[in-house]
């Protein structure tokens, strides 16, 4: 099962990231994972939250442009090579990873890695067939 990720498009100006996190906090939404990619002019903030609709509504009311995407969150063991094992599996079945980021929200001894896959359905099938534990919510 995939989870929803909110992408927020931000101008690369002082205080924009603080404004987003304030809007999220004021809406009573808890961040589970966060990542930002930027250029000289703009950034894309990627969020996994506990209340997607509330977050998206609050951000829209505050004037932020957002987009929802389906991503996959998997648990990986806290040991050398565990992420490499998952990456190798995707490589073997030719699943392109558009990007990934991690969350510290996993259970003890594990991390949660969020993958944006080019072919979501194939990625989900591979995860299921190879017994990789997904984090449907965290």
Any key phrases for this structure?
30% helix, 138 residues, Alpha-Beta Plaits, 2 domains, 4 helices, single chain, 38% strand, VC0802-like, alpha+beta
CATH domain fold name of the largest domain: VC0802-like
| Shape, principal axes of CA atoms | elongated
Total count of domains: 2
Taken in chain order, the helices and strands follow as EHEEHEHEEH
Number of DSSP helices?
A: 4
End-to-end Cα distance: 13 Å
SSE layout and pairing:
Blueprint: E1 3-11, H1 16-26, E2 31-38, E3 42-49, H2 52-61, E4 65-77, H3 82-92, E5 97-103, E6 110-117, H4 120-129
Antiparallel strand pairs: 1-3, 1-4, 2-3, 4-6, 5-6
Structure described in brief:
With 138 residues, this protein is α+β, with helices and mostly antiparallel strands. It has helices spanning 16-26, 52-61, 82-92, 120-129, and strands spanning 3-11, 31-38, 42-49, 65-77, 97-103, 110-117.
